[in-house]
């Protein structure tokens, strides 16, 4: 279940508190402590290809777009 699906379902269940409680009990996404899904890009929200070095927290695609603005130099 994606984050957007999760939010849509919760929006529909706000008027039905008992069903919402049961849904949350059985379907709440688990909190990740390791793995790809723990960290996401701060700019676009992607999970894969995440750069942690220098506390950048961007995916590789976003990093390529704004690297020169941040002061990184492309050598090749």
For this structure, what is the CATH homologous superfamily of the largest domain? Answer: Ribosomal Protein S14/S29
Helical region count?
A: 3
What is the second-level CATH architecture of the largest domain?
Irregular
How would you spell out the order of helices and strands? HHEEH
Name the assembly state.
single chain
The CATH topology of the largest domain: 30s Ribosomal Protein S14, Chain N
Strand order of the largest sheet: 1-2
- Structure class: mainly alpha
The helix content is: 40-55%
Q: What radius of gyration results from the CA coordinates?
A: 18 Å
Shape: elongated
Residue ranges: pLDDT <50 for 5 or more in a row? Answer: none
Report the end-to-end length measured between terminal Cα atoms: 41 Å
């Amino acid at each position: 279940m994606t984050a957007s699906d999760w939010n849509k379902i919760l929006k529909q269940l706000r008027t039905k508190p008992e069903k919402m409680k049961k849904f949350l009990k059985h379907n709440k996404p688990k909190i990740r402590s390791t793995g790809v899904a723990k960290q996401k890009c701060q700019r676009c929200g992607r999970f894969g290809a995440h750069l942690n070095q220098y506390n950048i927290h961007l995916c590789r695609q976003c990093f390529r777009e704004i690297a020169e603005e941040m002061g990184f130099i492309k050598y090749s």
